[in-house]
Specification:
Shape: globular
Radius of gyration: 28 Å
Number of strands: 31
Largest sheet: 7 strands, mixed
Strand order of the largest sheet: 11-18-17-14-13-12-19
Strand content: 25-35%
Distance between the termini: 83 Å
Helix content: 25-40%
């Protein structure tokens, strides 16, 4: 008797498997052991975002119908269809509830889920139309069956200004409450300066130490000091002190606070709130380096030559008292006011402001030397613009602030990078466990695809293309410098950034490509990053002797590194989504207005245009004209079949905003002829 074949059980043995990454357009990507596959929107097989799926390769896809601007580099893309959902990422979704007898219908908040979910109306008693609800999935959709579920809770009113970000937080499954035991431990924490001195903390409260942070900073976990010092070779140099809140003193391995912090792994900075890694009693109080208050720190003194070379690094536990808290704006004003003066005489001034200003100016000059040395070694410096939505007291967007680098921000950044590198080398040289920050060299095939795009710009002819594609830091620096102050400057920076590998945490010291560093670790932000807390514990264990639970933490380093890397990605995505939804809410008030934008992406269905305020929207293909436009996925261009008109990355484009949908997180533009062409 012939054996009956199974058409379902053996799929996982012969088909590639991976996690599906779905996008707004309905299509997706699956990264498998056999490489990445593109999944067309009609081949997702009822999969939801982040599900584990089996895929079956189908005919190759010629032009790469993807709106993912950083992933279009190849003319031929392997395409597949989902044949089985092996594991669901979640059994719950969030959505907007509507009555539609005889059922209730829930429209998923996540625009990547393109299936409404039906729920019994008897479960919706008291639930108002438009409310945001949580639904547990009972039946997932396929070719023959609709999606069904049951309401398990009401999240809030869709009209609430904060509900959009509440939803983003809920979708990301971020923890927003601390355990009672964790809060109790935090409430008992004290600085106890006298006890700290007995325990061996060095008293450096007489030093001129200060913090520099953004205007809206709520916690200050890093401070700096700068003094003249005699170097080992008897020449005159600098003693740069970097003083970081000693979070590890209050958060012991395995404690309730530690378990909460370990799961979170990072603070999350959203458009309207911060979800902290630590209870506020620590992050905003005991571990915050407030001016005039004694604080425990893990500090490192760096002996530095005039040219910025670090000749020695000494980490230690310290008791500090910050003399002053400055904003970046105040520090920048001090730099500009004192730039032309001889500030040496002010170091010993009795006036606190003069002493602080002298150190800010000198530290700014030293930071430039740090930066020059890193660039000479091959470090890449990306001049990026950060958009932050400004909200009123109700959470309604009222504007967008663009934060750019200044001498003051670079001052702190360079000091922190130098300290991070010094601590990593200190532990590596002593063959002591550490959690390093690793950044690998970019994939040459990715750079080859980027070179094809950049070749559209005349200035790229002056860049050594072979060296660029091989990942030569000098060639990448040349490309960034050539694009500087041109209209496409920001676009080129973004494209080069997207070509980089993603940095991650690891117990192995494998170097940091972007910083041209052979050893790098995160040491300077233990209030908001768990890896920094781990590095503090390792450093303290090396200085003082291994604590009782040291081996437990060391044996967990690989898992902690992987978990921290994953949670960092979640936090970044959530923060970005929160800014995006508020930007679109703001743009809803500007429908009908005209803007000058720049093309940042092309796809088979249209053009993505970014405005100067970073708002990004789509010009649909139908609005480009009554002709067929062909996509060149290698060069990122769209070309009209009749007119030969071409749209490419970096091109300026005047548009009118015709729609803004914060629920769908989409802006739609229509192209306009330039004023010059209209007048002719």
């Amino acid at each position: 008797m012939a054996r009956k074949r199974s058409h379902t059980r053996h799929a996982s043995r012969i088909n590639p498997r991976g996690r599906i990454e779905l996008h707004k357009g309905g299509f997706g990507f699956v990264q498998t052991a056999e490489g990445e596959f593109f999944i067309p929107r009609n081949k997702t097989g009822g999969a939801f975002p982040d599900d584990i799926v089996d895929v079956a390769p189908i005919k190759r896809y010629g032009t790469g119908q993807s709106s993912q601007r950083g992933r279009e580099g190849k003319s031929m893309r392997r395409t597949a269809r989902v044949v089985a959902v092996v594991e669901r990422a979640s059994d719950e979704i969030l959505g907007y509830f509507h009555r539609d007898d005889p059922f209730g219908v829930v429209e998923p908040v996540d625009v990547r889920i393109r299936h409404d979910v039906f729920v019994p109306l008897e479960q919706a008693e008291g639930v108002e139309d438009g409310s945001v609800v949580r639904v547990r999935m009972m039946t997932y959709p396929d070719r023959h069956t609709a999606a069904f579920g049951s309401i398990v809770g009401v999240v809030g009113d869709a009209e609430d200004e904060h509900v959009a970000i509440d939803l983003i937080v809920s979708q990301a499954k971020l923890e927003t409450e601390f355990s009672a035991a964790s809060l109790a431990q935090a409430a008992e924490a004290t600085v106890d300066a006298d006890e700290a001195l007995v325990e061996g903390y060095e008293d450096v409260r007489e030093r001129c130490i200060f913090t520099i942070d953004p205007d809206d900073a709520r916690d200050f976990d890093d401070a700096v000091s700068l003094d003249r010092a005699q170097l080992p070779d008897d020449t005159q140099g600098w003693r740069l002190g970097v003083h970081i809140a000693d979070v590890s003193h209050y958060v012991e391995w395995g404690s309730s606070i530690d378990l909460d912090a370990r799961r979170r792994a990072t603070s999350v900075y959203l458009a309207d709130r911060v979800i902290p890694m630590l209870p506020e009693e620590l992050s905003n109080d005991i571990c915050s380096l407030r001016p005039g208050e004694d604080r425990r720190t893990m500090s490192v003194d760096l002996l530095v030559r005039e040219d910025g070379e670090v000749v020695d690094a000494r980490p230690y536990r310290a008791l500090i008292r910050s003399a002053k808290r400055l904003t970046y704006g105040q520090a920048q004003e001090a730099i500009e006011a004192r730039r032309a003066e001889n500030v040496e005489a002010l170091f010993d001034s009795r006036d606190l402001d003069e002493r602080v200003q002298a150190r800010i100016v000198a530290l700014s000059q030293l930071a430039q030397r740090f930066r020059q040395r890193r660039q000479k070694a091959g470090a890449l410096d990306f001049d990026t613009v950060e958009a932050k939505v400004r909200l009123d007291g109700r959470g309604h967007p009222v504007g967008i602030d663009l934060r750019e680098k200044t001498e003051a921000t670079e001052l702190i950044e360079e000091a922190m990078v130098t300290a991070n590198e010094a601590v990593a080398r200190y532990l590596r040289e002593r063959k002591f466990p550490c959690m390093y920050r690793v950044h690998e060299q970019p994939d040459p095939s990715t750079l080859e695809g980027l070179a094809i795009v950049l070749n559209e710009f005349p200035w790229f002819k002056g860049v050594d293309r072979n060296a660029f594609c091989a990942g030569s830091p000098r060639a990448l620096q040349d490309a960034l410098a050539a694009a500087s102050e041109r209209p496409e400057d920001e676009l080129v920076t973004t494209l080069v950034l997207r070509s980089m590998q993603r940095a991650f945490y690891s117990p192995q010291c494998d170097g940091h490509y972007g910083l041209a560093s052979d050893a790098y670790a995160h040491f300077t932000s233990p209030i908001r990053r768990y890896p920094d807390l781990v590095v503090h514990r390792m450093l303290k264990a090396q200085l003082l002797g291994r604590p009782e639970k040291f081996d437990q933490e060391v044996s967990s380093l690989q898992w902690l590194a992987e978990h921290s890397s994953e949670m960092e990605r979640v936090a970044e995505r959530t923060a970005r989504d929160s800014q995006e939804v508020k930007i679109i809410e703001l743009m809803e008030e500007h429908i009908g207005e005209e803007f000058e934008g720049i093309v940042v992406g092309v796809a088979t269905f249209g053009i993505f245009v970014q405005l100067p305020n970073t708002a990004e929207g789509l010009v649909e293909m139908a609005d480009l004209g009554n002709e067929y436009f062909s996509l060149d996925a290698l060069r990122h261009t769209l070309t009209g079949s009749d007119t030969g008109r071409q749209y490419r990355l970096g091109q300026k484009m005047r548009v009118r905003l015709i729609d803004a949908d914060s629920r769908m997180r989409q802006l739609r533009f229509k192209p306009l002829r330039s004023r010059k062409s209209r007048s002719q």
